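Why do we care about 3D structure at all? Because function follows from shape, and shape follows, mostly, from sequence. That is the central idea of this module. The next example makes it concrete: a single protein chain, its amino acid sequence, and then its structure expressed as tokens.
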Amino acid sequence: MIKIKKSRFILTLVGVAALTFLLTGAVFFGVMEVGNMALVSKDDYQKAAKMVDKYEKLYAIQKTIDDQFLWETDSEAQMDAICKEAVDVLDDKYSYYMNAEEYKEWADKVTGTFYGIGVAFTQDDDGTYVVNRVMADSPAEIGGLKAGDLLLKVDGKAYEDSNKMAAAIRGEEGSSVEITYKRDGAEKTVSLVRGEVKEISVYASDINKDYGYIQIASFEEETAKQFETELEAMEQKGVKGLVIDLRNNPGGMMDQCIQVADMLLPEAMITYTKDKNGQEETYNSDEHCTDLPFVLLINGNSASAAEIVAAAVKDNGGKLVGEKTFGKGVIQGTIDLQDGSAMSLTIMEYFSPDGNKIHKKGVAPSHKVVLTEDAKTDVQLEKALELLK
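And the structure:
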């Protein structure tokens, strides 16, 4: 998911408590009391009346439950269920409601430090959870999990919601969790001990004395800073070129991928977005960028923010090697709510600099190279080096 600045979104929600307040005669607009009467402007009265009409049914259901249901009720759980369903009914797998606890867990993940097993996964259109990265020296790696494994259950339970799956995997440091996964048609269950997972999203190495390699595993809060550090190190080493690996990168924060693209491209358009009203916003790079030639590696698990970078590089004359990307070209705003909960809501679509649609289409490589599971060498990496030479 692409997380954008929360200050751009202001959301006013009217809950059951506020509705009750309205229905009993008070108004949260401008109110002037005269004796035992409350006077409001005609405009404010009409707004309040519309709100009452819209939420009257919800209020009636809640009040009937409170008054007549035989057993005790959990009003907070009820409100969570109502809010969740209000977003779920949109039938958009990228839009969802998070209660306060779920939102905190999600925020901890985005900031880069949490307790878990050290895997990143994506959810395919058929609901399958595919591991696209296993962090080095993590409990998952020690337990034998690999990229490409299918996650089936956590502690014996299957999940339809990817955020609930991720939340179940995380937990207290030192606690155990059972992961059931499938590889090559065979299921296996392993018991792992959760540990601190510090998200390092950029990895660099030398391919040989002439060329460098930088992998961007995802776009987290510190990704652009980490990438800049590794890029400057490669420039100081005097390498002749770079391979930048975006394969299996599920995306992340939009501001981070824009900054990375800015370091790679001279003055040019990176992407533009369009909201439901057709309003467009353009993101451009400035004239300052690396002088090193580079090639990007992409595959079918390169998604979201990774596709912004890939499309920007391709449309501005750069080289992409690999296979067509995932095709997630929509942006979610993460919107904080009053009680500590939040919702992720699809609010915009982004396009390549040339105006190409990415959502459900993906970004095609300029040099298609298929890497099969039984390949003995990384033919995509070899092709990238060939192009650099």
